[in-house]
Queue: 4 jobs
Job 1
Amino acid sequence: MHDASVTAAANRARQGSAADLAAALTDSRRDTLATFEVFRQALPDLQVPHRAELNPPLWELGHIGWFQAWWLQRHAGRMQGHRADPDAPRMPAARPDADALYNSSRVPHASRWSLPLPDAEATCAELAGQLQATLALLAEVDDGGPQRHDALYFFRLALLHEDMHHEAALYMAQGLGVAITDARWQGAALPEPPAALALEAGRWRLGSNVEAGFAFDNELGAHTVAVPATRMDAQAVRWAEYLPFVEARGYADPQWWSDAGRRWLAQSSPAAPRYLRSTGRTGSAWQQWRHGQWQALDPRQAACHLTHHEAEAWCRWAGRRLPGEAEWERAAIGHPGSFRWGDVWEWTASGFAPYPGFTPHPYRDYSAPWFDGRPVLRGASFMTQPRLRHPRYRNYFLPERNDVPAGFRSCAV
């Protein structure tokens, strides 16, 4: 759940000192390696099915180190921050074939299962050396100087990139039945739904123009938008509210689904959300696939691993609607004491698009290739590192994705 400690962690990642970043980079790598070790124990050969939503764990691990080195140790223009030339010549990699193995912009996803990757011991040893090199560079930064934010930009980018991959590893583990038992990455029971937030019509400054620190390129270009009056859920929809739709045979009733949702139903033929099954027994009717086994579902938890289509369908069934991202951001920032977020990523009604005056940052593949109208998700999930939980952060996935720990909240129509 969002609280002051989460805000502080996100602010340190985006605006903190070099010492803050050194500690965060070390902590992030510790979590990366701990989760990788869980995969090693559960999957001794580290082989996973060839699916679009997965990556080989060894490739993921090597890519994290490669990315950090690509933008820091090997990037002569790193001190220029977001104004740096992404195409400037790079210094050689410590491993001669690193770019051919790990450059996600050039290595097709389907080929990653057949690459001649180094083994786990070699990869971990390379990551240890790479992190030490990063920390040595960071120790040289004058974080009291006028250009401190430019000088620290790529350190912040590398940190948050690693945190994103850590979350991806956690929901990949969920899909593979690998048990992640660390208490930090478990979903929480939510209280009974509080009174809805009554939000008046008004105008909201969406996004950020703050350059004194770090922001992703798709967050910049703040602009004022009109926001309608509505009553918005104070927390995400729980299974207790979602499952009556399933039990009313909502998945078999096309009236609740969009055209795209009906196509998804026809292709996937789901009878219930991913990772759920009905036992047919009164009092314990639903079970959840978690930690590689079927467990009794806690109906108090936020409904999770839902597609955008499922979120929309429930809203139509309930006579509700998804919030737009401006509505979500306004509520999260304007009502911090009564707007609970961070239990699941939350689908919105907004398509992912650039804000006015968008200028891509050096990591060109981060935003611009995905401005195709796919839905924006806001907030964070129980699998998200606290450093990444920021109220202006924009996530984006294809609407049919249900491996991601995503749910939703609703607004009055």
Job 2
Amino acid sequence: MLNWDCRLERTPRERREEVLRVDFRRHDLPLTPKEAEREAARCLGSRSCEACDLCRLLCPDLAITRDPQSGQIQIDLDYCKGCGICAAVCPKGAIKMVLEEEF
């Protein structure tokens, strides 16, 4: 840190008393692809939207907004062109692209 005389002074940092230990030993056997998929789904939680706003920020059509009352993400399908960017960037996999049924 520089003081008023523009000289460099070193100030000692406080040391944390707790010691973090990292163990790199292998604790489990390799998983089969099916088991790995099940574990990944468990780690990602319920796959529900956490309103991280990635989809809203990257939507080129501005079709994704946030409800001011509830804070929930809303997709306006009248403006959505179906590019799939929102589904690709969603870290929880909460947005799925499906074909629309013709009426």
Job 3
Amino acid sequence: MGASNFLKLLSDEQISYVHESALRIIERFGVSVEDAAARDLLLSRGCRELAGRVAITRDFVESALEGFRPSITLRSPAGAVKKLGEGKLLCHSTGGAPWIADSAAGKHRHASMEDLINCVRVMNRMEGLDLPCALVYPSEIPPQITQFVQAATLFRYSEKPVMCPGVSSFGNARYIGELFKMLGNDCGIVGISPESPLFWPKEITDSARVFAELGVPLDILAAPMAGMTAPITTVGCVTMCHAEILAFAAFCGAINPQTPLVYGARAFSANMRTCQVAVGLPETGTASAMSAMLAQKCGLPSDVYGVGCTSCDMDEQAGYEKMMCGLLPALAGADMITGLGSLASVMCGSLEQIVIDDEIVLMIKKICSGYDVSEDTIGFSAIEEALQGDGNFLAEEHTVEHLKKGAVFSPAIGFNGQLMNWIDDGKPPIGEKPRAAVKDIIAEKPRVILDEALDRELHKLTAAAERELVNVINQPF
């Protein structure tokens, strides 16, 4: 399990100390569990009542960890296969931004259903993006069914397995569960978010039960904020996040030990002057790197924050924040990083930013892919032939062979020439190529991935969700 671990921000002894501290936290202080049935399940497994909370015991957690899978195989209805936790870094887009950066209009606006569909269509073309997520909330969709519609749209248009939005509504969970029954339990992952600090609302435990009973992969998205819902220090926030994931993972395992679980750490820091999350801080990258190491210790595949930023535009700030916060956890062995396509601490999505971020993650994947050290890669034969000749390696067979294998990264978006070439080209800004790529993709006719029979069933399910959860019939998407 896990990608190559090139970076260790914490020693093995420190990781063990954090893990032990998290176990102490949930056993000593417990979890506030709103639902009586969830509390009863925990108590039946040896957990204890604790002044209105439930103490999550070490034995309960450790027993659950023994049964979890270190890897998960996902298959889309279109036939694409992605394997999480098998040594190859995966990436997915972020989800749930209310705003979209509309480059054509030159403004930021509330996102629409058309924007969501176009996001998925662009993601289908991105080589480095493995799992599309619903980058934006479509503003015209009633909030009572937004999460279901986001998931349905992903399945309808995505050629890849999907990352469903974080589910916080039991009604939406039931209907998303029906989608998985229709399309297969392994066609995607569902996010579920226990609240910080250490609180499980009934809506969350009921939703988790839906997916755990079905055996749908669950991404436990614990998201404490340093200084507000967790200690201000990075290691303190990470420890709280770890405690929340351990407790909720054990709960899901008690429902169904075969539930595939993902360690979805989202340990954030904030601008403490405004008390608003700031994703582009170095603490995001370091917290994610530590979390990836903790996931490895627990034998769970990890999904941590990565290619996000506080910047509100696709500018220099976005570039350095995204590379810094994405590369650190990747080097620490994260199995999957998120954040692609997001701006403004996940308040805004951008089609063009998806394209730029795809190039960033391709660079990160290249760095983290591992390195073969052998006589061939060192190039003994090429050295011999070049030194016996004119000393030029350019025409050597070794050079041509390894260039074809990708020895040197070739950017599709970033400029890769000389200063005079850039001047002669009119000094094109970084956004020019992404805008052209997006324009070409969305100019094509949208293609529904599902076959006609499944698409009809999906529309029937959408109508049923509207009748029950909204009680009105909206325009079909």
Job 4
Amino acid sequence: MRGAPLIIQGGMGAGVSGWPLARAVSRLGQLGVVSGTALDAILARRLQCGDPAGHLRRALAHCPASAAAARVLETYFVPGGKPPQQPFRSVPIFTASPTIARQELAMVAGFVEVWLAKEGHAGLVGINFLEKIQLPLLPILYGALLAGVDYVLVGAGIPREIPGALDSLARHEPVSIRLHVEGAGRDDEYRLHFDPRLVLPAAHPPLRRPAFLAIIASSTLALTLAKKATGRVDGFVIEGPTAGGHNAPPRGDPQLNTRGEPVYGDKDVVDLEKIRALGLPFWLAGSYGHPDRLRAARAKGAAGVQVGTAFAFSEESGLAPELKAAVLERARRGQVDVFTDPLASASGFPFKVVTVEGTLSEADVYAHRPRLCDLGYLRSVYKRSDGSLGYRCPAEPVELYVKKGGKPEDAIGRKCLCNGLLATIGLAQRQRTGYVERPLVTAGDEVTRLGHFLHDGKTSYTAREVVQYLLGDGAAVLERS
């Protein structure tokens, strides 16, 4: 791996770790990471906002798949931006058999985000995916490779086939991965297919294959991936339950504390000795946003640390400014609260939610939202009685979910993360009923410590300050030219 970094900036939320943040961190000599979640919807909505600074159109002009980029621009770009009260044009929900146009949008979105993060410097840039969001993964991944992405990080699942997919995509070859289908029989074989030639018809030289890091929470999974992955695994990010976003469920019988949060114990502590024995570099994540924790991680044999929360509230992150300011003010006063919600995510994984007024963290705001699934990234694929595939989400209307074979108890407390996270970066949809989607802010437990960046009356801080703090003693950080 080229220049393994000390610090990996977490790939957070949908658009929170967007290209401006990843670019800033990368220019500081560390690994800047863009989130691959919902990149297609984000690109479509930002084009409809008029792309006022012209960044998206500049990236589109450099896309090797020029015809696909032109079609995306023609479909979604609104000169001057759509009227504020007008809903965003919907992006078709991804299925296991997507149209070429839908694959083009996903591929172009992956290219744009990584290309902008890498523009004008020689630093390292990665892209982060949730393995559970399978349907758009391959075309977004291919777009990222076309833009020269250096690292691919995948968590929230068992990404056994992603390393092999990287090998094939780097050669512009057709690729497939196993599709998770609820209710599938032992003899059933469902796969997702992607053919790069459909979106980039002309012949092109092979691409550089990026390094692959699996985000894991157990030494067993690390061993499985190291031995049974379809291609080369280059390292691991070992993420503890204090990290933001989705957390791995606790092992053993589920227990909740008095607040209703999952209880983690000794079984959830990763055996680093077994990780070290694999001989692959690893980074530690989850409350490692402190210079002492970085030194401790290095002493344990880690190549470095992954830090998310401190970067998520920096000036360069994609969080809407008013939400960022509200959380930082609470952090400065020592009054910020994070709840590990066992029910919020349709994925079934615990999900960390920051309490912020006017967001889905509040029971009455959540109750007021009409249940709807119109983005579908966290939908589950299931096998119908006739053998065809169906799609359901426990955050959709309960009667519809049950009609599709879902259990009504599985719908209790589910929040629409897809719409909530897009609202969190200022891209809230106005539904046909007039309802405007409300944000949902996620962060790790380290959010309670962000006040130390706000000394001397400061109300904000930069990614540079985070890197300098982590490296300790105000260490000088040279930007790459």
